[in-house]
Amino acid sequence: MLSDFGQEVFGVVASSKRETLGFQTEVRQLLKLMIHSLYSNKEIFLRELISNASDAADKLRFEALADPELLDGETDLSIRIEVDKDKQQLSIIDNGIGMSRDELVDNLGTIARSGTAEFLAQMTGDRKHDAQLIGQFGVGFYSSFIVADKVTVETRRAGLSANEAVLWESDGQGEFSVEDIERAERGTKVTLHLKDEQKEFSEPLRIETLVRKYSDHIGFPVSLRVVGADDKEARIVNSATALWTRSRSDVSDDEYKEFYKYLTHDFVDPLAWSHNRVEGKREYTSLLYIPSAAPFDLWNREAPRGLKLYVQRVFIMDDAEQFLPLYLRFVKGVVDSSDLPLNVSRELLQQNADLAAMRGALTRRVLGMLEKMASSEADDYQTVWREFGQVLKEGIVEDHANKDKLARLLRFASTHNDSDAQDQSLEDYVGRAAPDQDKIYFILAENYATAVASPHLEQLRKRGIEVLLLVDRIDPWLVDGLAEFDGKALVDVAKSALELPDSADAASQDEINEQYKSLLDKTRKVLGERVEAVNVSRRLVESPACVVAAENDLNPQLRRMLEASGQKVPQSKPILEINVEHPLVKRLSAEADDAVFDDLANIVMDHALLAEGAQLDNPAKYVRRMNKLMLDFNPGATSEQ
Ligand code: ADP
Asked: Which of 175, 159, 155 is nearest to 167 (CA)?
């Protein structure tokens, strides 16, 4: 009693004591959702537990490279499964790395992965939708509570003695307990106390089928033993050859898919994979996958990414991010090198002379896979683009060597079709352009609706010239980095010096301005500091006016983005273009009353800004002017100044 009291008040925990702890809030929510939404996929728990056991064996083999004593004479690493029908129990046992008390408490209960809370906020309660989302999160150990009403974990970390083992126990509700125990064996034993309606998972045949289906390809033997009344000797039930070491022709599509799920904890099939063995100067095998959905933490800079690295079949590290560029962070897979030293660390990898070449080759491999999909599986490629398009766009800026390849992979929304789907390639665009069109036109906007309704498109639309509608945050950088495609320059239709295909011999801006000099001068004077210049527009058809940026000015979207992120951006004023054919501009031109001219000119300017998605500096003033104007339309009303 006294020590209980002591524990609560002073937080002192005698390590032999049984301790009851609450799951972290996020873990608790995750558990609930998982059980609820994954019910129809309940059997995946076995894959997850075997995957953890195999990781534990991998980790021990790796740590033992530096400290062989950890193996303590027991060098054959394996996974055992025991089923006990009478007790309705199923155990997954490994002789891998095991966990210390602290690791156990952290890993299975108190530490949720970063970003879990935001992830959970996206859950809707709709089973199908949530199941998809959980797949992106990766399910793991907690999936055992789909089939078990109690789970116990007995574990002893490699290097610790028999009396330093720990027992973890939980019913998956709100709490778990940990307690020190004696355990002769190294590694971890996870026992599921199956729910009554899930006792099928204590049937040997059912388990054997599942192991073959889900875990045949892992590199360690998995044995199955029946315990209890009809105790039988253990038998190996998987082929125990790491999948990537087999020859491509021996591996079925289903096996590739299962291996992906085992590797990533995703439970949705991947879209594509590429399995290759490179021989010669450098020898390595790679197996790369394109997932079918973005992970929940694709935009989290700290999120782990990269490939699982093996050296001569020995697991070295997860998330080796050095093998692929950042813009391919969604790619999952394994690389197994024959040349890297077994003691390679992240730092050593960075300095390794062969790495750049491997990275280059793996990058080309992924791009090749995407190219192939884009040309022969357009629907799948649309999924890739929807999920990872914005990330791939980073490549245009980052990866100069592969710019041409990447440019062909880009997809855009365009005025060619009436939808916001990003499904047009630059090749499509160029193929449709008239022979004398030597440019690729684009507009940048905050969203599709603003882009497609922009006054800047009017002249181009009238002449049937296609414009790409760019609405992603990264697009201003993308067009900067891309600059041209197929010898055709990319041109922003909202820049002042817009040249359209047959405008070469047309009058110059100065010549046209000259004809409307007095109107332009007067407007310029009235608008004062609000504008850099006022020009006669050659791009408008239906709208009275629009604003454009000078050739070397920052694009307004980029400016707003940089300002929003707190950066100082050099100030620049827009150029107002007016459509001298428009009745409103004609009215402005004919206006004799200076005060009315002033209001009208400012309203025209405000509307041009609003159409482009900008915010007005002084909305109240705009509203006052508009109110006045509307009152003036009513001959019976008196206007107030
Ligand atoms: P994940 O495997 O995706 O990291 P889990 O929830 O399945 O997530 O497991 C959490 C952590 O618990 C693992 O990362 C690992 O550190 C530890 N763990 C789980 N199972 C075992 C095991 N059999 N042996 C050693 N450590 C384990």
From this structure: 155
Task: Copy the structure tokens of residue 221.
Answer: 């033997």
DSSP for 113-124?
A: PTTHHHHHHT--
Residues 22, 54: one domain? yes
Measured CA to CA, the distance from residue 158 to residue 634 in angstroms comes to 89
Distance 490 CA to ligand 1 centre (A): 50
Largest pairwise CA distance in the chain: 106
pLDDT above 50: residue 9: no
Question: Same domain for 432 and 471?
Answer: yes
Per the domain annotation, does 487 fall within a domain? yes
pLDDT bin (cut points 50, 70, 90) of residue 465 is: very high
Domain CATH code at residue 492: 3.40.50.11260
- 304 shares a domain with 177: no
Confidence of residue 509 (pLDDT cuts 50, 70, 90): confident
Q: 0.90 cut: is pTM over it?
A: no
| Residue ending a domain, choose from 349, 371, 393 | 371
Q: What is the whole-number distance in angstroms between the Cα of residue 262 and the centre of ligand 1?
A: 13
Residue 495 and residue 526 share a domain: no
Confidence of residue 634 (pLDDT cuts 50, 70, 90): low
Q: In the chain, how many domains are there?
A: 4
154 lines ligand 1 (CB under 6 A): no
Span from the CA of 108 to the centroid of ligand 1 (angstroms): 7
Q: Is the CB of 56 under 6 A from ligand 1?
A: yes
The phi and psi torsions of 622 (rounded to 5 degrees) equal: -60, -45
The residues facing 490 across adjacent strands are: 440
Q: Letter for the amino acid at 147?
A: V
CA of 105 to the centre of ligand 1 (A): 11
Our answer on whether the CB atom of 265 is closer than 6 Å to any ligand 1 atom is yes
377 within a domain of the structure (yes/no): no
The token pair that represents 5 in the structure block: 């009291």
Nearest residue CA, atom 13 of ligand 1?
107
**At 77, is the pLDDT very low, low, confident or very high (cuts 50, 70, 90)?**
very high
Q: What angle do CA 48, 52, 55 make, to 5 degrees?
A: 135
Pick the atom of ligand 1 nearest to 92's CA: 23
Nearest CA to ligand 1 atom 21: 52
Residue 285's domain spans which residues?
A: 244-371
CA 53 / ligand 1 centre spacing (Å) = 8
Question: Among 45, 47, 55, which residue has the most ligand 1 atoms within 8 Å of its CB, making it the best to mutate?
Answer: 55
CATH classification at residue 101: 3.30.565.10
